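Q: Now give one record:
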Amino acid sequence: MRVFYGFDSLPAFRHPVATTGSFDGVHGGHRMLLERVAAIARDAGGESVVMTFEPHPRLVLGGGVRLLTTLDEKLDLLSRAGADNTIVIPFDREFSRLDSHTFLAEYVAGRIGAEYLAVGYNHRFGHGKEGDFAYLQRVRNEWGLTVMQIDEFDEGDEKVSSTVIRHLVEEGSMEHAARLLSHRYTVMGIVAGGRMTVADEHKLLPPDGTYRVTVGGTATEARIDGRSIELAGAADGKTTINF
């Protein structure tokens, strides 16, 4: 997967199929959307282009958020979900003031040259979140866009959302969270002396306690104490913990 930071040095994408969102957690609903985008791109002989934001918009606009994924974790999961390209949009208050028309005209159609745009069932974009699927249907011909909406994703009889998964992680229900995520909950960081200190204050960790985890495919134990994770038998260096 190619990663681009901002829109200034983008290549000419081949029949780009685009989607946009925060994708916090890259959960089962996100993965369904990404798989659909990848399939459309394959059928069109093109490539998928995922637009996401750094930092998370709620960290800029107020309200705060405990992140299921840091940027590195999100990029890893997007790659594993089959994204061909990801554009990391530097999100600030100036960008937040872009209206839906400008975002589509200058970025989706202008910089990316998107031929298809896929959005989730409840996705809204642009200043004041005035852009929704009904809006896309009205304006798509202005840029020759084919637009599509992906249905809500449920796991059994449960609604899948980043908010629901955050609650599960906060209470330490890691197997339940993994089922809605469609993957194990991930924490990436640097281990030194058998301990990982999670520097990003916004990264959501399970409650203090001892958990069965895997590191590099090997089962071990992780003991969480605040922002510190002690890993039994872990080598020093960059490490991914799967809860």
Summary: The first strand starts at residue 2 and ends at 5. The CA atoms of residues 51 and 208 lie 34 Å apart. The helical segments are 28-43, 57-61, 71-80, 93-96, 100-111, 133-139, 162-170, 174-181.
